[in-house]
Design brief:
This protein has no helices and 10 strands. By secondary structure, the protein is mainly β. The strands form 3 sheets. It has a 4-stranded antiparallel β-sheet, with no helix packed on it. The chain has a 4-stranded antiparallel β-sheet with strand order 5-6-7-8, with no helix packed on it. It is globular, with a radius of gyration of 12 Å. It starts with a strand and ends with a strand.
Length: 98
């Protein structure tokens, strides 16, 4: 459903119907890791400008921030009354919008 390149172009992150945020190696096409935590379809994914974080938005109404290197959930942002269709990160990486 959604994809985004890492800033260095070496990874792609995707989200979809399987409720996963998946990181892929661009050169080999191999799955690097699958990030589990959303309970509904993942509509939007973004790498932070420094490539250290991944932000995901889902139909479960949550925005999640992940450590891109190890796949750990760093933070969960709540407050949406419905689905999260889009996420973004400021150029300095300090703010997330949804």
């Amino acid at each position: 459903v959604c994809v985004c390149f890492s800033p260095d172009g070496k990874r792609v992150v995707s989200g979809g119907d399987d409720k996963l945020v998946t990181v892929w190696d661009v050169e080999t096409g191999a799955q690097v890791r699958a990030l589990r935590g959303h309970t509904e379809i993942v509509h939007s994914v973004r790498f932070s400008p420094d490539g250290l974080r991944i932000v995901s938005g889902s139909a479960d109404g949550l925005v999640k921030i992940w450590d891109a290197a190890i796949g750990a959930e760093v933070s969960v942002l709540r407050g949406h009354s419905g689905k999260v269709h889009s996420v973004g990160i400021s150029p300095d990486g300090k703010r997330v919008v949804s």
